[in-house]
Amino acid sequence: xxxxxxxxxxxxxxxxxxxxxxxxxxxxxxxxxxxxxxxxxxxxxxxxxxxxxxxxxxxxxxxxxxxxxxxxxxxxxxxxxxxxxxxxxxxxxxxxxxxxxxxxxxxxxxxxxxxxxxxxxxxxxxxxxxxxxxxxxxxxxxxxxxxxxxxxxxxxxxxxxxxxxxxxxxxxxxxxxxxxxxxxxxxxxxxxxxxxxxxxxxxxxxxxxxxxxxxxxxxxxxxxxxxxxxxxxxxxxxxxxxxxxxxxxxxxxxxxxxxxxxxxxxxxxxxxxxxxxxxxxxxxxxxxxxxxxxx
Length: 295
What we know:
Number of helices: 8
Oligomer: single chain
Shape: globular
Mean pLDDT: 92
Largest sheet: 7 strands, mixed
C-alpha cells in the first residue's frame, strides 16, 4: 500500500534548483535567493471540498489548478509577479497515491506557466474532506504594488472582463489576470485594485465606500444569462448574477485616468454608499449578496 513517504519521494523527484530557488522541496525548509532591492509579498488561500469545489465531480488535477490559481489571482490584484508557492493538503483517507499525484500535477499545471515553482509544503490524511492551502510568495520586480486603499472620488471603476455565472464551470478553469495586473500596476493611473472572488457587490466596498455602478456599462457574461434561465441557480436575473456571483476572478479597480485594459462600469463618489444606476436612470442601493464564510 503506497504511503505518504512514497508520495513525498515522488514530489522530490519533480523538484529542481534554479537561480532563485537554491534549495527546493525535500528538506525542512526551501532556500530562496532574494535581491535586497526587491519587495517580498506573501499571501495564503485555501480551497475546501463542498465550498470551493465538489470532489465527487471535480477531478484532483482541476482542484490543484484552482488552489494555485486563486493565489496567482491575488498576485494579479497587487500587480506583482509570483515567485514561489508552498502547498499543504489534508487528503481524505484512502484516496491513494494516484489521486495525490494528480492533485500535485494540477498545482504544477497552474504554477509553471507563471514561473512559480512549488518549493515545499506538507501532506497528511484524515477522516474529513479534502482541504488544500497554498501560500504564495510574490515579487514586485520594480513595480509598486497596488493596494485596496487608494480610490478617490471621481476615479473611474473598471473590470477586466464579464461577470456572473461562474458556477457553471468558470470557477474551476479561470486564468489569473497576472499580465493585466502587471500592466495596470505599471500604468501609474490605477489607485486601488482587488480580484473578484466574492462577487462585485461584496468586493467593491473593499476598495471604496461609495460608488455608482452603471447598468449600461456592466459587462455580463454569457454564463450569467444561462444561469438566469435555469432553475436551481438562484432564480435571479443575469444582472443580479453579474452583481452578486462570486469567483469571477477578474480584476476590479479604480483609476484616475483611462487604463490600458478594462471596461468602465462606474465612478467612485464622495458619499451615498454603493448604488446602481439602472438603464432608465433610476438609482437604487446595492446590497452585498456575494459570498461570505460564516463563523
